[in-house]
Structure formats: structure tokens, C-alpha cells
Amino acid sequence: MSNVTARTVPAEASSRGLVDISSLVLLAILLAAGFILNMTTGNALAMTGIKPQFIIAAYALAIVLTRANLAQAIIYGLISAAVIQFTTSIPGLNFLTEAAGALTMAVLVKSGIGGTKVNPLIAAFVTTLVSGALFAIAGTLMAGFGLEAALPKVPLVLGTAIFNAIVVQALFFPLAKVLQK
């Protein structure tokens, strides 16, 4: 019999690089859930005047749970934007809006605004506002309309921001407990 030992890879080896594998797996799971929820619940709730963006909630949760730095947050935002391309009304625009939203989330999480108990709520609200406002303004301008044409979209963006903030806050503590973070 040969004396063969199993090869072990220390945890640090999987964490080298810009984004570690476990963070990408978490993001992928959250984005998959967000995509399905956007296609089902999101479309059903759109009749109420609120169009939840579960993809934004997904990357916001990934950022707060992994405590992503700015570069990692941009990667999360760009990956999320790639997923959104399947359902967006203006292809390509989400690469800008989700990168900006993800950066906003990372900055707010790192700043600790509101403390750890309400930071996910506040940060997700502001993140969704940034992403939604940029999408509404840029989309309106790209369509050839004046900036004032974006004003009717304000209630939709605010409603979505409130909804996303509640979703992120509600999911933060159970997910953090499961992930032991």
C-alpha cells in the first residue's frame, strides 16, 4: 500500500486575486434568484407602480455581505448589468448604472452610515436611487427628450428604492447568519 496523502489547498489560495470564488458564487446565487424574481414577482408588482429590481438588491446584498471594496463592487455591478441585458429596455445602459450603483453601495457600506443594523436599508435605498435615477435620466436623454421628461419617473424610482431597501434589510441578517459574517 502506498502512503498517499490528500492534497489540501489553504483557504488563502482561493482568495487571491480581485474577487474570491466564494464571493462570486454568492453573487451568482443572488443574481439567479434576483433574475427569477424580476421575471415573476417583479413583473406582477409592476402593475402597482413599483417595479422591484431584484438584481440591484442581489448585488447590494453581495456587496454588504462580502464587504466588497470599490474594485470588487464594480465587478459585481458589471456582472449584474450583464444579467440585466436579458430584460432591459435600453441595452447597454445598465453597465453604467449598475457600476455606479455598486460603487455607491460599497462606499456606503464602508462608511458605516446608519450603523450596522440599518446600514443595509439606507445603503440599498441610496444605491437603488442612484442606479434608477441614472437609468431614468440617461434613458430619457438618449431617447431625445429633455430632462424634464424624466420627472414622471421619479415616483417609480422612489418606490423601487423603498422596496429594494426593505428586501435587502430583510434578507441581510438571515444571510449573514447563514454565511457567519
Describe this structure in words.
The radius of gyration is 18 Å and the shape is globular. The chain contains 7 helices and no strands. Residues 8-15 have low confidence and may be disordered. The protein has helices at 11-14, 21-45, 54-66, 70-84, 93-111, 115-142, 154-179. With 181 residues, the chain is mainly α. Helix 2 packs across helix 4 (70-84), helix 3 (54-66) runs parallel beside helix 5 (93-111) and helix 3 (54-66) crosses helix 7 (154-179).
- Which residue ranges are poorly predicted, with pLDDT under 50 across at least 5 consecutive positions? 8-15
What is the count of DSSP helices, taking H or I runs of 4+ residues?
Answer: 7
The helix fraction, in percent, is over 70%
Count of strand segments: 0
Return the average pLDDT rounded to an integer. Answer: 88
| Structural class by SSE content | mainly alpha
Name the shape in a single word.
globular
The biggest beta sheet reads: none
Note the beta-strand portion.
Answer: under 5%
What is the gyration radius calculated from CA atoms?
18 Å
Order of helices and strands: HHHHHHH
Termini separation comes to 43 Å
